[in-house]
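name: query_chain
kind: protein
chains: 1
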Amino acid sequence: MDINDLRALTTVLSFAVFIGILVWAFSKRNKQDFEEAARLPLDLDEGPTPSQRN
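structure:
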């Protein structure tokens, strides 16, 4: 095995991981969790008003 075989193997493994992340990110099973995470900044209470800060 020479360096070019190692480079090809690394490329194929990286591509497989990329495809795995895409499948995970766009799976319908995770849709509800991602929608909740997207709404999280809007659902948080606002911080103290400027008059309440020291």
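note: The mean pLDDT is 87.
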